[in-house]
Amino acid sequence: MLEIGRKATVAAVFAALAGLGGTSGAQALEKVSFGTNWLAQAEHGGFYQAVADGTYAACGLDVTIVPGGPQVNNRALLLAGKLDFHMGGNMLQVFYAKREDIPVVVVSALFQKEPQVILTHPGKYPSWEALVGKAPLLIGDNGFASYYQWMISEFGFTVEQRRPYTFNPAPFLADPTAGQQGYATAEPYAIQQAGGFMPDVFLIADQGFSTYATTIETMASTVETRKDVVQCFVDGSALGWYTYLYGDNSAANKLIQEANPEMTAEQIAFSVERMKEYGIVDSGDSLTLGIGAMTDGRNADFYAKMVRAGVIEEGLDITSTYTLEFVNKGVGLDLKKKLTGK
């Protein structure tokens, strides 16, 4: 299997591709499946990019992306051995798995910031603090059980503020005092289309919700027995994300729209710009360690916050829920420099 170097460049990737040759006589690619957690979208773009431009193939992998969706449970397929890798939401998922002694391990975190936001009507609340105890907030059940408990414990938001959210923007649009959960990359665009205005956006990561997001999960047995495959998939994904954000992402977007015909070019463009604007993928530690970076300190900080919020019990050995073995090597930093000139 070919290795992508520590700071792989575009030239190195294409040289590897040339070595594979793409012919019947070339080295056979190892088939790998990666299940996402929702329908194809720009928020998955780096993975589609690495498929589209041959980055995964350059180190010996034939990657099939298996989209998630409302009736698809790709995480269950990972646990059942039907998928090699899975796109996790954030670190809470592996903390919960640890509680049940399920050996799932995060090997890379493509999002440095959780893209969850609270949206409000323009100019209604001048600051995050102004929301506390005042704004009626439309929050779904999963959000109420996780990040909203942190909002209560860290800032003094109240249970009484919460209103059930059914993923219908109509209640928010009808109430100029309301706030609504959403993703920075999606719901603001939907609100603009439905309501004719761009809402104010409060990114909870910027308020201290310190989890990584859009993780790559796999089983502990895969980490132990298929290290070359894991390293290739982690490195290839990082390189894919650099190209998707800073280079020509048209081939990846074509794959996204083929997999999800309802996804528009306008929505994709909005999502890419917001990922860059808010530093969702590339900020903090990734600026020096490379996309996918994780640290022990950051994971420990998030776990401590979730314990204080009563979201999860203390005493779990969270160090077994992730590994730094495959990240923090600077893979792709020179590719970013070549693409951006910075």
Automatic annotation (TrEMBL):
Family annotation (InterPro entries): NMT1/THI5 (IPR027939), SsuA/THI5 (IPR015168)
SUPFAM superfamilies associated with the record: Periplasmic binding protein-like II
Domain SsuA/THI5-like: 42-242
GO BP term, example: thiamine biosynthetic process
Record's keyword annotation contains Disulfide bond: no
Keywords noted in UniProt: Signal
Pfam families to which the protein is assigned, alphabetical: NMT1 (PF09084)
Annotated signal sequence range: 1-28
Record's protein name: ABC transporter substrate-binding protein
